[in-house]
Amino acid sequence: MKRLRLATALTAALIALLPTTAQADTTTYPDPLPISGQQIIHDPAVIHLKSGGYVAYSTGGVIGARLSGDLTHWTDAGNAFAEAPSWWYEYNDTGDPWAPDISYRAGRYWLYYAVSSWGTNHSAIGVATSPSGLPGTWTDHGKVFTSGTTDSWNAIDPAIVRADGRLWMSFGSYWTGIRMVELSPVTGKALPGATVHHLATRPDAPYAVEGPSIVRHGRYYYLFASYDTCCAGVSSTYKIRVGRSTAITGPYTDSTGKPLLEGGGDLLLAGHGRYIGTPKLGLNRLSWMKDGWPEVF
Fold it and tell me: How confident is the model at residue 4 (pLDDT cuts 50, 70, 90)?
């Protein structure tokens, strides 16, 4: 989940865009829908373009790009940028961007992304805009929000959501978990002095929750996030949990009422069968049960 911006029936495909990995239980989870073509897509963010078809941006390259006409067959489309903006090198030696998020607002496509290094919260989230959303058309606008080694959060894994006429960005990875700041609707950057809201964490270090995405359904905002360990091959324990709130800034709770700030979160999707530590694109549809909670199929 990263994040897919479509009608409600497909909105939660963003959830299954996150890697899925195995856990030791007997729960039955749905396999992702079949896809073909270029399937190696890390941390994908997918949007339906107004010109038709879909684009997926991802970690790898200078924000790698893939195109599809039907959400099934994907082709390599190069990168969002021809070269890395110079300021990226403040955060790693290779100018390597991570975990993009794409949305459409005010007549433009907005691409948010993170730059950092493994194991540090010396990190930044940046933003670029495009009239078409296609690779090669993006103009970078620099830093949106940053974190440093004295902060208790990590400014990576951005996800944009609008609520009550205001623009918000959830983000976070490890450290103290998932955070949120309000953005300027004009610049798309954090408001000066913006409060850093706390949405979800784990009860103990290393606070293994990251990759948030927020979807509104009915009167609730649903916070989806990735829990536990990614990127460890078949030893990965990544899974997706969800909580909800009537207010965009929380508090978020699971179906038992346990706050996500106290380690709560309903398990939505985990690794199963041959889908263990996968670095490939996965797409599942999301439906809403009668009690208002989501399920994937």
Answer: very low
CB atoms within 10 A of CB 250: 21
The reply to whether 43 belongs to the active site is yes
| Catalytic residue of the set 43, 96, 254, 266 | 43
Single-letter amino acid, residue 150: T
Q: Give whole-number Cα distances, 147 to 73, 129, 135, 217, 242, in Å.
A: 38, 22, 28, 31, 25
Count Cβ atoms within 10 A of the Cβ of residue 192 and give its class: 0-12 exposed, 13-18 middle, 19 or more buried.
Answer: exposed
Which has more confidence, 78 or 14?
A: 78
CA-nearest of 208, 188, 204 to 138 is 188
Residue-wise pLDDT tens digits, 240-291: 999 999 999 999 999 999 999 999 999 999 988 888 777 889 999 999 999 9
CB atoms within 10 A of CB 39: 13
CATH class of 4-296: mainly beta
Which one from 96, 101, 210, 266 is the annotated catalytic residue? 210
Task: Quote the DSSP letter at residue 89.
Answer: G
Residues 6+ apart with CB under 8 A from 205: none
Reported as type and span, the H/E element at residue 104 is: strand 97-105
